[in-house]
Task: inverse folding
């Protein structure tokens, strides 16, 4: 393995992603002795060191972590702030000075796509890209052509093995566990096909709205924010053929293969919604058609899945927050007893676990079925799982690509969502705190 990164540079350090995810991740890495000697925050805002440290402290506390002063002190002593214009060469000269003795700095681009170009140019113009690694957030591009262009831009500046395309769902332990569950349990693997499965539903529901990110979100919407990347990655893990072996190459080939067999989504089987009040948020264009909810039906055209709908939905301002997969099995062939179908449910967010609905006899003289849930809450018997961003930052510093998205899969994902991007009509309003527009309930 290549040498571990000895510095982390956070572009966009004053932003939402850094405070919500990256500061808490760096704090946890410090606790485990995995943080590099330098953590440099870069932003246009003229912050000083104290402001940086104050923001990090607030972020760690708000993430609900127990703040240990000694650990935090260790982290803050490694932190420095560098304010400057992303388009000014001087910013990168100062950065190169600060990184003079860093062998493999890791550059994390937590910045809006509009300034990507300036930062990549700055990093390559100053020579920093030659010895650095770069982490790029999803969505990777805005559509298939822009994703190609972004790729060209990055590979023109960084070595291919130094580019890390993040989809943090790949760093979530419960999601990573889907393939182990499938290929590690004979009882389920035998049933994992159209002969036994009636449908698969994937839901990413969030109770909250755009949380002050409406200016960014209005250019993105639920399809680009969650469906194109997080949900389709989950679909790939659920639907892929067994990989040839346990190597990352074999897994990634199997994922890209199954995505290539998925048909492009159709506006006819897609419902888009927007929560009431969204258009009043700061940064939202008047009359915006951006969806905050989408429900759609994906078809995978191969022997295993022909005829099995993958029902995918995500939305903001829903009644609750949950990331879930429900596998609905076909009812038994015999009609001896009237029974409900078995449902296998994977809870993939906080409070993760698995449950299976089974048919059992209702107490009494008659033999009548009733459904019980066989439920496993992983918190009660597994060690605490590490947060996705902590794992992924750690991996990127080690140049480990296992849990990062690959170009082949990303391009398939853009192909799949392409027909439902940027629709200019048809977004339906829904009251906040509901499961989206009424049509969303019956979209399949
Ligand atoms: C991000 C999206 O990628 O994922 C957010 O930009 C969304 O809009 C978030 O809230 C959900 O991630 P998690 O880990 O909270 O399920």
Result:
């Amino acid at each position: 393995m290549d040498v571990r990164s000895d510095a982390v540079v956070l572009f966009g350090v004053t932003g939402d992603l850094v405070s919500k995810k990256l500061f808490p991740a760096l704090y946890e890495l410090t606790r485990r002795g995995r943080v590099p000697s330098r953590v440099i925050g870069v932003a246009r805002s003229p912050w000083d060191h104290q402001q940086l440290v104050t923001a990090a402290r607030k972020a760690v506390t708000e993430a609900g972590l127990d703040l240990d002063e000694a650990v935090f002190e260790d982290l803050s002593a490694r932190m420095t702030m560098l304010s400057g214009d992303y388009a000014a060469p001087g910013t990168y000269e100062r950065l190169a000075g600060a990184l003079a003795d860093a062998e493999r700095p890791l550059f994390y681009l937590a910045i809006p796509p509009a300034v990507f170009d300036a930062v990549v140019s700055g990093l390559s113009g100053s020579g920093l890209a030659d010895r650095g690694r770069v982490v790029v957030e999803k969505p990777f591009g805005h559509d298939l052509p822009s994703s190609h262009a972004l790729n060209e831009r990055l590979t023109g500046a960084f070595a291919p093995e130094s580019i890390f395309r993040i989809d943090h769902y790949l760093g979530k332990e419960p999601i990573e566990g889907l393939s182990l569950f499938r290929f590690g349990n004979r009882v389920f693997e035998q049933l994992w096909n159209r002969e036994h499965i009636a449908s698969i539903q994937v839901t990413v529901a969030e109770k909250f709205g755009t949380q002050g990110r409406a200016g960014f979100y209005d250019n993105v919407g639920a399809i680009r924010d969650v469906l194109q990347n997080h949900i389709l990655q989950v679909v790939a893990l659920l639907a892929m053929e067994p990989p040839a072996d346990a190597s990352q190459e074999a897994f990634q080939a199997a994922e890209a293969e199954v995505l290539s067999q998925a048909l492009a989504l159709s506006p006819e089987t897609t419902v888009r919604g927007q929560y009431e009040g969204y258009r009043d948020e700061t940064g939202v264009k008047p009359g915006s058609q951006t969806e905050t909810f989408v429900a759609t039906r994906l078809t995978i055209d191969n022997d295993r899945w022909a005829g099995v709908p993958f029902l995918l939905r995500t939305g903001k301002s829903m009644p609750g927050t949950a990331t879930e997969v429900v596998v609905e099995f076909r009812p038994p062939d015999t009609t001896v007893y009237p029974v409900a179908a078995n449902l296998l449910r994977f809870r993939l967010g906080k409070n993760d676990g698995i449950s299976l609905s089974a048919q059992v006899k209702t107490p009494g003289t008659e033999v009548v079925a009733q459904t019980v849930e066989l439920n496993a809450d992983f918190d009660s018997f597994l060690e605490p799982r590490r947060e996705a961003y902590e794992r992924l930052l750690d991996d990127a510093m080690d140049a480990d690509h296992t849990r990062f998205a690959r170009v082949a899969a990303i391009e398939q994902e853009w192909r799949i969502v392409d027909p439902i991007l940027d629709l200019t009509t048809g977004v339906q309003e829904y009251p906040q705190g509901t499961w989206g527009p009424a049509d969303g309930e019956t979209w399949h």
About this structure: The first helix runs from residue 16 to 31. The pocket of 6-O-phosphono-beta-D-glucopyranose is lined by residues 168, 206, 225-226, 323, 349 (CB under 6 Å). The mean pLDDT is 96. The chain has two domains: 7-137, 173-383+407-441.
